Amino acid sequence: MKTQSVSKNESQTSSTPTPSIPSLKWSAITVFVILSWVLCQWLDGIKSQWYVLDPETLHQVAKSALASSNDTAGAIQHIVSNLTETYPSSRIRLNTDVNEWMFNNAGGAMGAMYIIHASITEYLIIFGTPLGTEGHTGQHTADDYFYILEGEQWAFEPGQLKSARYGPGSVNYMPRGTVRQYKMHEGCFALEYARGWIPPMLPFGFADTFTSTLDFLTLYRTVRITLREMVRNLLIGKI
């Protein structure tokens, strides 16, 4: 009887299914995805605590630059000087080398840019072209403010039958996720500010190098300067 009972128990034990390795693998992946989503949601909810720059303040700085300068170069110098006087280097690091320009190709549009600030949650650049350009804005993980310093920008979204037009002193605001076609006419330059998650925006700025321009020297310079500025800010605790 004992032998039969033992054999019966062994038979029941051996017939109990055990989780397969693929099942454990997918369970682990599911848990990882859920935890990653929760973490991203939490970080997205607190990202504003790392913002230093302010959209309205930047708009006022841009307008004061136009009022006190006779040309775009003077306006840019005014902006940089104003920001460095307003924000201490212990809070935010700014790139004051106004000669550090580089080409930028993104969404089919081409211009030149000067990076004033780059961190994980904010960037501030001067972007424009004396020749004119147009393209796709891209869909981004940050709110974008485009303060026109010179010239005129046109933009529209699907369903709009007329373009919105932005001249000197005005701002083209694009909430996160907004997609537009835009055109910058000859001699258009702007101060562009983005606040949100900046790293996911970078592939859009790099993609045209691999699909059309093959200008890897400019890509290297862009990556080097962007990372340099982000690291400089991380070292002072500016996320």
From TrEMBL:
Chief subcellular location: endoplasmic reticulum
Keyword presence, Membrane: yes
Low complexity: bias regions: 11-20
Keyword Phosphoprotein: no
One example of a Gene Ontology biological process annotation: ergosterol biosynthetic process
Region feature Disordered, mapped onto this chain: 1-20
Pathway membership: Steroid metabolism; ergosterol biosynthesis
Biased composition (Polar residues): 1-10
Key words, A-Z: Endoplasmic reticulum, Membrane, Transmembrane, Transmembrane helix
Any one cellular-component term (Gene Ontology): endoplasmic reticulum membrane
Enzyme type, top EC level: isomerase
InterPro entries recorded: ERG2_sigma1_rcpt-like (IPR006716), RmlC_Cupin_sf (IPR011051)
Tree of life domain: Eukaryota
Enzyme Commission number(s) from the entry: 5.-.-.-
Subcellular location, record wording: Endoplasmic reticulum membrane
One matching Pfam family: ERG2_Sigma1R
PANTHER family to which the protein is assigned, alphabetical: SIGMA 1-TYPE OPIOID RECEPTOR-RELATED, SIGMA NON-OPIOID INTRACELLULAR RECEPTOR 1
Family per record: Belongs to the ERG2 family.
Protein name: C-8 sterol isomerase
Lineage: Eukaryota, Fungi, Dikarya, Basidiomycota, Agaricomycotina
